[in-house]
Amino acid sequence: MKEHFDIAIAGGGLAGLCLSIQLARAGYKVLLCEKESYPFHKVCGEYIAIESWGFLEALGVPLVDLRLPIISKLQISDCNGRLLKHDLFPGGFGISRYTLDATLATIAKNSNVTLLEKNKVIDITYELNKHAFKTANGNFTATVVCGSWGKRSNLDQKLNRPFVQLNPNKSSHYIAVKYHIETSFPDDLIELHNFNNGYCGISKVDKDRFCLCYLTTALNLQQNHNNIQKLEENILTKNPQLHKYFNYSRFLYDSPLAISQLNFAPKEIINDHIFMIGDAGGLITPLCGNGMSMAMHASKFLAEIVNEFLKKRITRDQAERLYQETWHHHFNKRLKAGRMFQGLFGKPSVTNAAVGILRKFPSLTNKLVRLTHGNTF
Ligand SMILES: Cc1cc2nc3c(=O)[nH]c(=O)nc-3n(C[C@H](O)[C@H](O)[C@H](O)COP(=O)(O)OP(=O)(O)OC[C@H]3O[C@@H](n4cnc5c(N)ncnc54)[C@H](O)[C@@H]3O)c2cc1C
């Protein structure tokens, strides 16, 4: 007999961890499988919109004790380094994924989640009202399965999801690179610097470190001999603002942390009765700085819907429909805004004109910032 769980979750990033804690605290038997082992670094800008503060505290993350930087100012430069300065309202805070995910993993274990690290989920199939959940270290069954495996995973291929079938066009596929650095930079500021075909963010996280993270097209990297250092020397540092950070900071990793094959095409929220959550359900462009808040917010309403289903107050069909409707209601506008902003960033003539216009119309900048942030949940 395979061990049976009320809920099995594939992927222990923010979405999977937050969901597992809420459902375990509601009294369910929860399995969470993560292919890595905590703590570990992750490519992410590590700026969290303030809307998530109360939610993380309620889960038990000691945000105040961690003495995190509160970020309330924004600076954007065009490809020539010309700056737009603006207040960032409602703003956010900085915390590394190394610290945050590991803290949530400890909370999950203390909340009775069966958290299996270094355990990749290999296949998920649905039959007769339950799922078979096949992992590297054992097979299980579950009444509900949630997919929180992030941007792209082996399971997307297994499920034949349409976004993985997209022709890998090198200018619509992106790569992202992240470093932790020590540098001279204010605690309350986030900067976004444009360069040819990409942009780079920098802001403070915990432990007096700064996160420097950029996104660019796969084509840009290819044109620089698939060499990250050459890409930085030839393209990024042409922006004088970035030149400063790349030349006068201490880089704390031995080598850059990089991911590839990112695309922002829409995804399905339900696949073969699996509830997709976080980046597995839809990837917002990083410059909006809101993917993490969306992952956490979705975990909150999905936990409520799963609870209704497991209590047999709604059918599986109704639960799936309700989840899709709630997801679209909360996130559609933000995802559309993200795709629109992506078009304004990283193309020198468009970016330079956009930054020029926004410098003249601060109220327009306010509106755009507001579009990328959500409300407290
Ligand atoms: C360049 C860049 C910068 C960003 N900057 C920001 C920012 O500043 N602020 C913000 O709010 N958002 C930002 N985001 C978005 C944010 O990182 C994501 O939205 C967020 O991490 C989503 O969380 P998740 O739990 O869905 O996925 P993840 O955090 O990616 O977690 C998925 C987990 O699943 C695991 N996994 C994958 N496959 C399997 C498998 N088969 N079995 C078991 N485990 C598996 C992975 O190891 C991983 O731990 C950025 C994204 C990018 C690309």
TrEMBL record:
<dbReference type="InterPro" id="IPR050407">
    <property type="entry name" value="Geranylgeranyl_reductase"/>
</dbReference>
<feature type="domain" description="FAD-dependent oxidoreductase 2 FAD-binding">
    <location>
        <begin position="6"/>
        <end position="38"/>
    </location>
</feature>
<dbReference type="Pfam" id="PF00890">
    <property type="entry name" value="FAD_binding_2"/>
</dbReference>
<dbReference type="GO" id="GO:0016491">
    <property type="term" value="F:oxidoreductase activity"/>
</dbReference>
<keyword id="KW-0560">Oxidoreductase</keyword>
<dbReference type="InterPro" id="IPR003953">
    <property type="entry name" value="FAD-dep_OxRdtase_2_FAD-bd"/>
</dbReference>
<keyword id="KW-0285">Flavoprotein</keyword>
<dbReference type="InterPro" id="IPR036188">
    <property type="entry name" value="FAD/NAD-bd_sf"/>
</dbReference>
<protein>
    <submittedName>
        <fullName>Flavin-dependent dehydrogenase</fullName>
    </submittedName>
</protein>
